[in-house]
Amino acid sequence: LRHTLQLIKMSSDDPGDGGSCAGGVIGTPSVDTDIPDGRFGALDLAVRVGSDVVACGAAKALVGVAVAVVRGKTVHTSASGVCRLGSMEMGPAVDSDTMFLTASISKTLVAIACLQAVERGELDLDMDIRDMAQRVAIPHSTSRDDDAGVGFDTAGASAVATIAAAHNPHFPGAPLTPRHLLTHTAGLRDDETALMPGSFRVDGTDFPDPLHAYVARRLLPGGADYDVDLWTPDAPPGSVGYSYSNAGFTLLGAALELATGTSLHDLANTRIFEPLAMSRSTFSLVVAQDRGDDHLASPHRARRPLSHYAVAEWPAAQLRSTAKDLSRLLCALTAPPGQCPLLAPASLAAMLPGSGTRGLAWWGRDATYSCRESGLWEHGGFMDGVRTHIYLWPDLSSGAVILTNGTGDYVDIECAVKCVVRGEDDEDEAIRAPTSELHDTSQSHAL
């Protein structure tokens, strides 16, 4: 790490062009920012080194990397590597429009969709989801999201019955609310197996079952894959400690679809992606394969490319997006007070509390996998074949995103990103900067 940081420091001392490096890196610094150009060059170098399969070794390389940095606007993008490794021919080069599987960055979009529903009077974060389900009028028709190509029984009798029965079986009288699910305090303990190859994962297409069917199958007594051990007996929802859960966000997605009468695919498209012109972002693998063409980055375990896959727990882990699109999201969330095009100020404050704790989906200082840096909200994504991370510094009106399609670590890239945003030049400061536990690359599951 110290050796690589020294390389980065040497790059930042090189007057050069201040924004691009040789070796295939695409660097696009802004010309009207107060960030010294040398730091952008250092970031470009870290991206290039991290994606170099030959230099890093197949087991450590990230294969392809795309990075964006925001300060009021997108001030820099870097990209390097390829979309897919092959024995005879490499896939196309990664750029800022390459679509990546973002893994658990997905959860931050679900939080935004929930708060938008609150603003519209469709969802109450503090209502027991069982009570919410019982208030839903059941239409005779089934909603269908044609963009995703998947049918959704969002407000049918089976969805109502499923959500009306969802609770911690160890505390049957305790309410279970959307806020509990958003803060990972619902008591669901995730073993992550549903994201690995098996009956909850498919290749090449979207998972066929609606979200409430997953809930009935895995989280309710009598379900074909019911596992009571997913529910903690230690304390009721809201009183139990932080316990990260993809299953919890899938239950949340099912409850949100029921409350709004609209598929989560359609909510994301009409309320987030379209307003921000995020045209290369989707929760649907089918749509991603259509839009991505050759620029849909394949996940890789070491040197081996994997098939594009989809999971039953898709609200927690299946967003596919680009560095450019996610920079638009970061610009929206760091806009001047009252100017966020997605959320009202009160909703932003609820999602990212000033205390730095109890964030909705976003990791603050109290989250298990957070780096616990003051002033930073973040979320990492570790999934089979990908490593990703998104960062928000609200007080600095800044943000950044790192997308990769390999299983190596991105600690050097993260250090360079933080040096850019926080204005640090000294390598010892970067080394001392806290880094997330997620850089343990022995993990192959999603976080």
Q: Number of DSSP strands?
A: 14
Shape: globular
Spatial order of the strands forming the largest sheet: 1-3-2-14-13-12
What portion of the residues fall into strands of 2 or more residues?
5-15%
N-to-C SSE series?
HEHHEEEHHEEHHEHHHHEEEHEHHEEEHH
Question: What is the count of helical runs?
Answer: 16
Low-confidence stretches: 1-34, 140-153, 426-445
Instruction: Describe the main β-sheet briefly.
Output: 6 strands, antiparallel
Q: Output the structural class.
A: alpha+beta
Radius of gyration from CA coordinates = 21 Å
Mean pLDDT: 83
Q: In angstroms, what separates the terminal alpha carbons?
A: 24 Å
Helix amount: 25-40%
Outline the structure in words.
Helix content is 32%, strand content 13%. With 447 residues, it is an alpha+beta fold. β13 and β14 form a beta hairpin. The two termini are 24 Å apart.
Features:
six-stranded antiparallel beta sheet; alpha+beta; 32% helix; single chain; 16 helices; globular; two-stranded antiparallel ribbon; 447 residues
Question: What's the helix and strand layout?
Answer:
Elements: H1 2-13, E1 26-27, H2 37-50, H3 53-56, E2 64-71, E3 74-81, E4 100-101, H4 106-119, H5 129-134, E5 144-145, E6 150-151, H6 157-164, H7 178-182, E7 201-203, H8 211-218, H9 246-260, H10 264-273, H11 285-292, E8 300-301, E9 304-305, E10 309-311, H12 314-317, E11 320-321, H13 323-333, H14 345-351, E12 377-383, E13 386-393, E14 398-404, H15 411-422, H16 427-432
Antiparallel strand pairs: 1-3, 2-3, 2-14, 4-11, 5-6, 7-10, 8-9, 12-13, 13-14
Helix pairs in contact: 1-2, 2-15, 4-9, 4-10, 6-8, 8-9
